[in-house]
Each structure stands twice: as C-alpha cells, then as structure tokens.
Design brief:
Layout lengths: L9 E4 L1 H10 L18 E5 H10 L1 H8 L5 E3 L8 E4 L2 H9 L9 E4 L9 H5 L1 H14 L3 E4 L21 H7 L2 H8 L2 E4 L8 H18 L4 E7 L6 H10 L6 E5 L6 H13 L1
Parallel strand pairs: 2-3, 2-9, 4-5, 5-6, 6-7, 7-8, 8-9
Antiparallel strand pairs: 1-3, 1-4
Helix pairs in contact: 2-3, 2-11, 3-11, 4-6, 6-8, 8-9, 9-10, 10-11
C-alpha cells in the first residue's frame, strides 16, 4: 500500500519500451551492486498526474526523468492504453474472459496490497494469486508486471504473515513474496518507499528483495519505490536512489495527490545532474 492513494489503473508505454520489455524474459538479466546505470537506461515510472504536476513546475526535469526510452507513465493516453492495472486477479481473469480489455493493451500490472481493493482471498494468499495472474497474462500474450506491498504481511488470516516482533519487510522476505512475484512477472517492484527515511533499512530491504527476485527469475527487471509521502527533503530521496543504484533497474516515483511536488522536482533535477 502506498498508504495514501490507490494507483491509477491505466499505464502507457512507448512501442520502443514494449520491444525492450518483451525481450527481457528471453535474456538473463544481471545487475550487480556496484554497477552504474545512467539515468537514460533506468526505468522510471510515474502517474500521468505526477508527470503533469512536475511538468508545470519544471518541464525539463519532468521530461528528463520520464521522457527516457524506458519510462512508463500511468494514466495516459485514455483512448488506447498500452497497459492496464488491476488490484484484483479475479477481476483481471473476468475481464480476460469477457474480452473487456482493449486490444491496444500489451502490458498488464497486478498490484496486490493489504487494502480493500484487493479481494480478501488474494490478500490472505497473495502467492497463488500472483502466479495465476502471471500465467493468465502470458497465456493471453500480455507482459505481466507485479508490485506486491509488504502490507500483505499484516493481513489477518494470511497464509504467511508477520509473527509477533517481526517487521513487515522481514516477513515479506521470509514468505517469499518477491520470489513469487518474479516467477510470475517480467517486471516487479519492491515497494520500499515507507523505509526511505531510514537509509540503511531501505537499502537492505531493496537489496535483499531484488536478490530474492533474481534468484527466482534471473531475467526479471526490478524497480523500487520512492515517494514524497514520507519526507519533504529531496536529499532523502536522492540518498535512497543512490543507495540502490546498480541494485535495481529503476524506480517508481510516487507524488500522491500532488503532495510535495517541489520535493520531487528537486529530486529529479539532482538525479539528472548525477
């Protein structure tokens, strides 16, 4: 859960990105700590609202970060989406069966979290739901993306969840949530943004989750979450970005409900200058 806002459900990606992503599952992807990725080769994801908000403040910064070849913008175009998102595997399966998904869609994203929009059964047992989503997506020619949140570990009655005294992130790793997501998808997110004000914890969780994902699927692309929800200091975001640069393939930048857009702009400018 991003703690403040449900994701937009429409994702758009350029055709060049589709070609790049489609080849990902066919090659062994290996990013190792210490390697250096350029901004242009990192994957940056944001909602259309976030990009538009940042563009009003600094178009160059917004375009520099989200205009790169591998950028994904959630929420546009409305008429012919390239990708769509679901918080429910059951709803996705129904839409596939009903042929309700626009023919323009090539990428499908599943975002299971400990929130009401993910059905109770999927919250309690996210692993079979993720595997079912990925299998159905691939069987229908879609590229699957899965972004599970550690809040699933706090769900009452979960088949695997946090025990007394255990952190959500520790339970998440112990329960193999990132590994399951990686087996089911071509791109996975480590939703670690709630830890970004604790740099050591952020780096450890992202690194451990990325390692788990790649052990399960060497070809998977891994991104990590960064958000303005938890800080108004762009240096905090920059430190989080730097701490896992070379560990992940990119980031999801979340500016929920337009919270602290100036912080995001300053962060984007610093990334572009790095």
């Amino acid at each position: 859960m991003r703690f403040v806002q449900r994701r937009n459900v429409i994702v758009t990606v350029s055709l060049l990105v589709l070609v790049s992503f489609a080849s990902t599952s066919a090659r062994a992807h290996a990013i190792h700590p210490g390697s250096r990725l350029g901004t242009a080769t990192e994957m940056w994801i944001a909602t259309a609202t976030t990009r538009a908000t940042l563009s009003r403040i600094d178009p160059d910064a917004a375009n520099g970060l989200f205009g790169a070849q591998q950028s994904i913008t959630l929420g546009e175009p409305v008429g012919a989406p390239v990708a769509l998102s679901w918080s429910s595997e059951r709803r996705f399966a129904r839409d596939v069966a009903d042929r309700a998904i626009p023919s323009s869609v090539r990428i499908v994203l599943y975002d299971p979290e400990g929130w009401i929009v993910t059905p109770p059964a999927e919250r309690r047992a996210p692993v079979p739901a993720m595997l079912a989503f990925g299998s159905l997506a691939r069987a229908n020619g879609y590229l699957p993306v899965i972004t599970p949140h550690p809040s699933l570990m706090a769900v009452r009655g979960a088949t695997c969840g946090a025990i007394v005294g255990e952190s959500l992130e520790a339970a998440y790793l112990r329960c193999g949530i990132q590994a399951a997501a990686a087996r089911a998808a071509d791109i996975v997110e480590v939703q670690a943004q709630f830890l970004e004000t604790d740099l050591g914890a952020y780096e450890r969780f992202v690194t451990d989750a990325a390692t788990q994902a790649r052990l399960a699927n060497p070809g998977v692309q891994v991104i990590s979450g960064i958000s303005t929800t938890f800080t108004d200091d762009p240096q905090v975001l920059l430190a989080a970005w730097r701490s896992v640069r070379g560990v992940v393939d990119g980031h999801y930048l979340n500016v929920p409900q337009g919270v602290r857009p100036e912080t995001a702009v300053a962060f984007a400018k610093a990334v572009l200058a790095a």
